[in-house]
Amino acid sequence: MSGEIFQSFPNFTQNMWNGNEPNCKGHDMVGGGQSQKWTFRYGNAETFEDRILCASFSLSPKVTISIVGDTLNILDFRYSGKFDEWSYCNKPTGRIHETFMAAHQHELEPERIEKYLNTNISDCKIWDMIQARAKELYNQSQV
Fold first, then answer.
1. Cβ atoms 134, 81 nearer than 8 A
2. Among the four residues 82, 85, 96, 127, which has the most C-beta atoms within 10 Å?
3. How far apart are the first and last CA of the chain?
4. Torsion region of 92: left, alpha or beta (phi above 0 gives left; psi -120 to 50 gives alpha)
């Protein structure tokens, strides 16, 4: 199904919402060409030649995978109503919330990271790209 889903946005299709096609053009790239922006049910992203430039993907209301360039962040807010979060970042200087949340921040366990990175979301092209890039960044940091 690729028809209109929002009356106020007639050009926004079901395929876009499902994460199977970008919804608009993005930035002009220095080396030529133009990136593509994605807005979908799980978040948003920007790609160039099927490579993730940046992305924010919510696996659930409490788990988010973010990629900016070559920095991977995974946030897990396990409990409602608490400040505690479990997080992983492949770069020590790239942590989200580190300055004001340090007392409530915990290392995300490797088995949870693997579980999140191996999540199966069918019929979502952007997830396939984000998942591949996230696994690549995670595996590089484990060497």
1. no
2. 127
3. 43
4. alpha
